Amino acid sequence: MPNRKFADGEVVMGRWPGSVLYYEVQVTHYDDVSHLYTVKYKDGTELALKESDIRSQSSFKHRKSQSSSSSPSRKSRSRSRSPGRPAKGRRRSSSQSREHKDDKKKTVQETNLALPVLKPSENNTRRYNGEPDSTEKNDTSCVILEQKLKPDLETERVLEQYSLRPRKEEKKKEEIYSEKKVFETKPFEKASSKTKDLEFGGRIGTFMLIFFLPATVFYLLLKCKQDDPSLLNFHPPLPALESLWETRVFGIFLVWFFLQALFYLLPIGKVVEGLPLSNGRKLQYRINGFYAFILTAAAIGILLYFQFELHYLYDHFMQFAVSAAAFSMILSIYLYIRSLKAPEEELAPGGNSGYFIYDFFTGHELNPRIGSFDLKYFCELRPGLIGWVVINLAMLLAEMKIHNQSMPSLPMILVNSFQLLYVVDALWNEEAVLTTMDITHDGFGFMLAFGDLVWVPFVYSLQAYYLVGHPNAISWPVAAAITVLNCIGYYIFRSANSQKNNFRRNPSDPRLAHLKFIPTATGKGLLVTGWWGFVRHPNYLGDIIMALAWSLPCGFNNILPYFYVIYFICLLVHREARDEHHCKQKYGLAWERYCQRVPYRIFPYIY
Model-level pTM? Predict the structure, then answer.
């Protein structure tokens, strides 16, 4: 762990986030976890800065003495011409004075351009504080902006101290102010070597989840097969163990998995870079998930054309779930064994605790790859997500066959349509997954392997599986109302995610000019307008609304189809708590200011 360089109460020079100017600040606190200094500016502003953004006052004075003494002969000549002129307080000629003022004015204007301040005519589209919006009557944000960002006398003092007039000194001036030079010396700081904050109940909790998650999936599937799947009938009849496994089913699952892997390797679709890793490196990803979906649809169409019984999936659904669970466990063991040889910088920040069970569950290695084949990225969207759509289609065909229907029921059509939209949207916007915590923070272990390959396809399709054995009739007006509800949830989900992803990749995008944000010491901004100014996690709100719309076609005879809604609320509340903790450590005071500006987490005026 690096030693602390600056002490509390020490007066230093701190760089203002987003600019190249250094101001005199006082160190008030140091966080041993995030390694951020809390500093206080002269106007009372407090920010959390990295150590690389702070310099001692002596380093600035040393640069000044070097530059001011670089031309001793010139000073000597100046004195020899006017021996009787006093050293201090001597007057300049009118031409020299005008030239000095013009140079100073020009330098101040250039510095203003370097600062991230927008003109009032742009309606302050990018805020650097969490104060009230400009639409309020008492617009105090403009005053605070002026106090924090206007160069004023403090900037002029810094410029007077460090701005040198001769052209030969321009290079040295750039070294003082250049942000590039600051980050070249220490471009990226290594993350903490060990994970300290354990989630999911630590070692005991993760050990139990390894058994509890598969048991939950099997229990839900067995309940759906019952004639009376109510909670009062708690114990479903357990099938014989030999009926849970069939080698042919496992072989079909392997064919499916490797077929999707083949589609992933096809040289179609663009190649993009992910977010920077802790060592500064960016991995490349091929974006062709939507093409894989089209190829899969074509393959399924060919099978149906040749009279392949797709409802075979429904007849052997439990066996497919067991096969997927077994494969995910084998994959998780392989992932953990290979992670033991991974370099330190390639380990996941959340899965490097040193405890076998915990690291096995959460994932020890961040981005396990076989050559250019990224295992985590592949499993995130391909076999499970596309398999979810195929399972829903199999349930639709099974319903028609079992109930001798020429057309599927209206509830089954709604469930298939809503969830198909969700999957197609995810594949069409595949690049957006690169900015999620699953890719940037979580390792690839049992949690994600089981979630991607078992939980997503077999639990998310629970409504369609339920409708096969428990049909429900709804009217067209009710179907229209449920459709509107799903569209509202989808609109919130998609527009919120688009705002976040576009802002993370290019904050200066003209399409985002209307968004305002709070700067942080990490160089990133926290959006305080748009959907992210409405609640802190608007994408979670859209998810929950859509989950409710997926369950409503099943009626209210049983709570089982609403398990997904209950699970989703619990999952998102947990994720929200994790995100809150992670962001508070990462952004410090900026996150506290953001929480004051956006008080509601998921549900407006409720939570």
Answer: 0.68
